[in-house]
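Support request, please re-run this one:
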Amino acid sequence: MQYLIEYPMGKQRLESHMKQMILNIKYEYEDGRISALDLISAVINKLPLPLLEEYIQLLFLPLVLQLVNDDSKKCRERVGACITVLLSRLSVQVLQSLYEYALKWSEDGTGGQLQRTSVQLFGFFLDARVDFMKKNSRVETLVDYLRHRMEGEIGNVDHTSVLIAKEWEMIYFCLQTVEKVGNVQQTILWKNSQLWESIIKCVAHPHPWVQLLASRTIHSQLSPCKLDHFEKINTNASSSIILKIPGSLFEITRNLCFQLNSEEEHQSNDISTMAIKNLSWIIKVMDTYPMLCFKDGEISELAADESDDENAGSGGDKRRDPVTWLITRLSNIAKKRGSLRREAIFKCFAAFATVCDSNIICSHLELILEPLNRVIVETESRDERVTNANRRSDAFGVSPADLPKEVLQLLEDKCGTEEFMSALTSVKSKAREKRDTRKQKVAVEAVKDPEAAAKRRIVKQVTEKERKKRRVEERKVGRGVFTKKPRHLG
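Re-run finished. Output below.
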């Protein structure tokens, strides 16, 4: 490389070397492509500016094509870094010509790869040349374009095929660029309410990458706002999108609960962590300014899904309380089986106990304790069924009851021992009553409808068989023992 930069050579030889470098980024193996991209990045940094601008067409377009077509994530990241370095060194005139390329691609009527590429390039322009993007209202124009693209894509999402098709990519790249705009000029984002409506919908998008990016964008823009930011609710002085879109706080909360309620195989630690961070901030705003959760002051809009409020009490006041709705929703989610789902909810409860005032936790203590107590009871019941040998084999593992017990200790420290024990006793008493009632129903059914009772016993036996099989497989994996291949496949 040093030879290429400093050794005097003719234009034809220099151009030949440059073309060879570009050809190397299409090398068959990933390591070779990464080496070629590192070389190009070093050359871009060291070439004199006039010479770099002379060969800009030779560098820019092949890098963009490689960004689109490379299957390796590492290579795409290196290509993006090369394009960013290239844009950061160019003069305004040359930069404008490249920006016009991106604008032409963004106007592609087919809505295909060219538009997705243009959105990525706009993000690189924001990374490399903020000064250029701030001039001539380029950022404002970009935000309007991103809003238009996201609205169109969200309306066309097929929730049955989005995980295997390409429908998520445009939304994902738009959110990436929106996040970069927020880092550059936050005030422009606050002005565009329609864009934020699309971002809030993306929190419940079926693709996990879109969910994570939308949640992260909301957290980065809303979490810095303090509670006193919402004191003057009826004025336009505040820039918070929560004030400009009535009911948006509740919609964000509902979509975050949708994330936490994903099926076990779709649970993601990154998504759950970001959802917990958002909810830990939201619950404090809900408690102080509950009317922000309603549309146009209509209290009935909150409890639209009464299935989520089965434990909120029969009184209308409880169902109108956003904090009660949220904790009830989380409590109901944790009742369903699924270790990862329950772990996410219990971590959320622990975060609430850490950041919220004690009066919020104390007034909803039974709702929080109910799923915690359920998991502890289920774990103890399971341990009673296993043999001593199996219990010893699990002694060094992590019990499902460990996290709930830690959360119980946090709640006791937060609310005080007396109030905590009173609520825990009430929860255990109600659980015992439900269990006894269920047993009575089974006994009555055995007398009145023997056929239905027999079917119930068969289902229970099949479930127990599957449970034992699953436990055996879990122990094998824990010991490092894996299933052997059949002999005919050996």
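The longest helix spans residues 417-448. Confidence is low (pLDDT under 50) at residues 159-165, 233-238, 303-316, 392-396.
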